[in-house]
Amino acid sequence: MSLVLIANRAPIRRTDDGWAPSLGGLASALLPVLEDRGGAWVAMQEPGEDTPLQQSYPPDAPAFTVRRVPLEADEFEAFYQGMANRVLWPLAHYLVEHVEPDRTFRDAYRAVNRRFAHAALDVARQVVAGGTAPRFWVQDYHMMLVPETLRTGMPDARIGFFWHIPWPAPEVFRILPSARALLRGLLGADLLGFHTAGDAENFRESARDLLGAEIDGAAVLWEGRRVRAEAHPIGIDVERFEELATTPDAARLAAELRDDLGGVQIVLGVDRLDYTKGLLLRMEAFERLLEKYPERHGTVSLVQVATPSRTGVPAYDRLKRDMDEASGRINGRFARGAWAPVRYRHQSFDPAELAAFYRAADVALVTPLRDGMNLVAHEYAASNAAAVAEGANPGVLILSELAGAADYLDGAVLVNPYDADGVAQHLADALDMPEDERAARLGRLVGAVRKLDVHGWAQRFLESLGGE
Residues 383-401: pLDDT tens digits? Predict the structure, then answer.
């Protein structure tokens, strides 16, 4: 059966050589599905973006349609920068102090969601064989109202929705003035997917507490239908990261990084510059390590990659300033000679470069304050384990117990990201961990990561959605 995907970002990008798949796990997972089954991908056209509103892909042998919904600058600002990133994102991560309720945000969000849904209905009528009910798969918190409109337009369609970030407890979600309308929007779906069983349970409880819906096992009973809320944990393209980590370039870049740092042990953080990632507390934990263990001075460095994110949003601009100050303070206190305890890199790196970082790191420090899954943890395990097969030393993953990945990645050292002293102690233990324990933990980690491979995630979700 043909599939219509609705997501914020398009799965293809323009390059010097024409059109190519977008970088990232979602496109990697879902493009093969669309190419195999046919259908369409509905996405946003950002203000000023010069792309076709509708095109076939791949150009030489079209398998599916890309349909774009054009947004004006003011509605993009209110829908995306406003409602999505300044309301829904912080609320879902329990950081309510960053929530900025605004009526114009809600109005723009509702209008844009309606346009996405109508575009999806329109393209479904074009690409789905006559007499066949289509399957829709809606992605993430940008599109919460889309399922309800799809249900109204095509009552017999199969509609899936995947929520890629945490779903908060009902008492947190109900803070939103539009909480009930958003829940009704999602309940237009047949299947709602979440990373963890806890997130799915929080959603069901929200529907019960705010709408009075009845709960029956994993299902919400709503308007005569059973809406299932299930855990469908996502992973990465494991084979791709294993290949990237074992190229000659990755080996060379990893060696250059170690040489540049003077042969010290490397603690690695890789994140978007986002207040949910616990970056300042991570810096504090590393500073505590240096305070408690002066004998480690000159023997270990924190390499923190912070990819620029949502520039122009005040909270993110403040975080950048705070991170600059924190790295400067730690280096000012402890640096000596050629050794700098913190190497802070506020820039973007491509996946091949990141794979080299993962290969080189003795410890990965992944300590978000809250995360739906956290795929950096998966990437580190896959990349580091592949490099170990070529003779590299096995690394240790220190992982926040508040990340969804903590439910699945056996072998990680779990920490509370708010406990800087505890993180510092676990970091010291990881740096001194015997090689046989490192290897055993890494083996369990990569086994778990392979089970959650992103291609399997897509297949499992669509099988559960049914309709074929």
Answer: 999 999 888 889 999 999 9
- Alpha helix locations (H) across 154-311? 170-173, 179-186, 197-211, 238-245, 248-260, 279-292
- pLDDT per position as a tens digit, 19-53: 988 876 678 788 888 888 889 999 999 999 999 99
pTM value?
Answer: 0.95
Helix (H, G, I), strand (E, B) or coil at 39: strand
Instruction: Give the pLDDT confidence score for residue 6 in this predicted structure.
Output: 97
**163: domain range?**
3-235+455-465
First to last CA, the chain: 6
Given the residues 195, 371, 426, 453, the one annotated as active site? 371
- Per the annotation, the verdict on 371 as an active-site residue is yes
Check if the beta carbon of residue 257 is closer than 8 Å to that of residue 266. Answer: yes
The residue from 164, 232, 378, 426 that is catalytic is 164
| Per-residue confidence (pLDDT) for residue 130, from 0 to 100 | 61
- Are 282 and 417 part of one and the same domain? yes
- Note whether 140 and 37 are same-domain residues: yes
The answer to whether residues 368 and 402 touch, using CB atoms and an 8 Å cutoff, is yes
Does the active-site annotation cover 346? no
In the chain, which residues have pLDDT < 50?
none
d(CA 185, CA 69): 19
Total number of domains in the chain: 2
Task: List helix spans (H) across 21-161.
Answer: 25-37, 73-76, 89-92, 103-127, 146-153
Residues 176 and 284 both lie in one domain: no
What pLDDT is recorded for position 131?
Answer: 61
